[in-house]
Amino acid sequence: MKKSLFIILSLLVTSSAFAKLNIIVSIQPQLEFISKIGGDKVETSLMVLPSKSPHTYEPKPSQMIDISRANLYLAMGVEFEKVWLDKFKNQNRKLIIRDITTGIKRVAMSQHHKNETALDPHIWVDPINVKQIAKNIFEALSRLDSKNTNFYKKRLEIYLKELDQLDTEIRDILKETPKETKFMVFHPSWGYFAKRYNLKQLAIEIEGKRPKPKQLIHIIKEARRERVKAIFTQPEFPDEVAKTIAKELGITVIKSSPLTKDWAGNLKKLAKAIAEGNR
């Protein structure tokens, strides 16, 4: 009897020691950020599924089950969180919610957006911003799992160096690209990237909607005047208008989403397209 009790207690202690933190995140880039710091100490679930928009996303019933089992939700400040974070908390009273955007200064959305005073949530398209996000993730994981603080700290230090290297690579790609070079997008998701690397994005959408014919003519004239050589669309938004503009300008439409899982590779792809278009 004593031997059986000892075995049961040992199994409980062992399973507790190797239990992973169960984390929920909003968007795909966070999967990379958390993996870089949390490694095999965390299990991460995604809310906004690929090709879906974080502006209007509604979780599936299976995802609400994930919420009920989670230890930690790492909020990114995207639009659907405003509606759903309170509901997640009601679903799981023990759920800890941490804002990992703390310490990052937000800027206003680009022109043509439905509310020009609204703050741009796409902070993760700037590698230097992601350094702060990484530090916030480290703090959140360490608070909840203090016994592995050193593990998280070492991985954070490695990742911060990787982010500096990514920043250097992007600057090298763009080194011959004139400052204030314009590129066109449907939805103004790349403002922080543009600001970091002395570029400017021109948004196609007007008041959050596809432009009307007269507005489209104005946009095409503006693109010609600004000598736009790159136009980007996202899978989350329609690209018919972008194709029309690209045909008029004689350039190619490039699909590039800030929500993709290959976050670092995507930023380099964006930089290369802008650089090549302006050679």
Write out key terms for the chains shown.
4-stranded parallel sheet, globular, 2 domains, Rossmann fold, alpha/beta, 10 helices, single chain, 279 residues
Mean pLDDT: 87
Please work out how many helical segments DSSP would assign: 10
Head-to-tail CA distance between termini: 79 Å
State the major sheet. Answer: 4 strands, parallel
| CATH H-level homologous superfamily name of the largest domain | Nitrogenase molybdenum iron protein domain
β-sheet strand percentage: 5-15%
CATH class of the largest domain: Alpha Beta
- Name the overall outline: globular
If strands are numbered along the chain, what order do they take across the biggest sheet? 2-1-3-4
Query: What is the ordering of alpha helices and beta strands?
Result: HEHEHEHEHHEHEHEHEH
